[in-house]
Specification:
Blueprint (H helix, E strand, L loop, with lengths): L10 E6 L1 H4 L9 H15 L4 E6 L7 H4 L6 H24 L5 E5 L8 E2 L2 H9 L3 E5 L9 H11 L4 E6 L4 E2 L11 E2 L1 E3 H6 L7 H9 L4 E5 L5 H6 L6 E4 L1
Parallel strand pairs: 1-2, 1-6, 2-5, 3-4, 3-5, 6-10, 9-11
Antiparallel strand pairs: 7-8, 10-11
Helix pairs in contact: 2-4, 6-8
């Protein structure tokens, strides 16, 4: 009789970048990437893991880049928040096509398309087996979706933040340009800050460090990698105290 593997984590927050939703080009919404994301999320949900997702919006619009186009920073950030809602709705649709019950909660009130973020309601959805997708960032300009992920993870009592990327962990330099780049299996918050490794922006990273929230950076596009992380296998890079 095959032994059933027990997940290491009961409740996770998965941080998806907008660029990941955009596929190889990182622009727009790639149907193949969207389906693969939904399939991996459904796979761990079937194991009984409670899943929260924070989606970025860089595949559609990035607030800080809007400044270079003459758009006022706060306005650009609000535009970026709306982009994350589009991504959240797309992911919800992909998950529901796999019969995964899903709710989108927004930090910006838009009752026709998403619930407003209410912590207790989000936790209740998780307890009922639903995947919860948080859109709209924190609802405030000047804060990234990384910060939203760190904030929501702590609010809803997640055990770990899983940062989905296109590389297999954290390196001391860009592995795409430096073939001798060193990959870390594990690193402390202070080491990552001291080496200026771009795990998350400084606000998000400080929030994780202050609340001892572990972060795992891993390659989301390798088959079954999310499941492997949830089972506690040594995948990607662990950032911890």
């Amino acid at each position: 009789m095959k032994k059933v593997q027990k997940p290491k984590y009961r409740r996770i927050l998965l941080k998806l970048s907008g660029e990941a939703l955009g596929g190889p080009d990182g622009v727009g919404i790639c149907p193949d990437s969207l389906r693969e994301m939904a399939r991996q999320i459904a796979e761990v949900r079937q194991m009984g893991v409670q899943v929260v997702v924070v989606a970025g919006g860089g595949n559609i619009f990035r607030g800080i880049s809007g400044q270079g186009q003459g758009i006022e920073r706060a306005t650009g950030d609000y535009m970026g928040m709306l982009a994350t809602i589009i991504n959240a709705l797309a992911l919800q649709d992909a998950l529901e096509k796999l019969n995964v019950a899903t709710r989108v909660q927004s930090a910006i009130a838009m009752a026709q398309v998403a619930e407003s973020f209410i912590r207790r309601r989000a936790v209740r959805h998780l307890e009922k087996g639903r995947v919860v997708i948080f859109g709209g960032g924190t609802g405030n300009p000047y804060f990234s979706t990384d910060t939203a992920a760190a904030l929501r993870a702590n609010e809803i009592g997640a055990e770990v933040i899983l940062k989905a990327t296109k590389v297999d962990g954290i390196y001391d330099s860009d592995p795409n340009t430096n073939p001798k780049a060193k990959r870390y299996d594990q690193i402390t918050y202070l080491e990552a800050l001291g080496k200026r490794l771009k795990v998350m922006d400084s606000t998000a990273f400080s929030l994780c460090m202050d609340n001892k929230m572990p972060i795992i950076v891993f390659d989301f596009f390798k088959e079954h990698n999310l499941k492997r992380v949830v089972l506690g296998e040594r995948v990607g890079t662990l950032v911890t105290g």
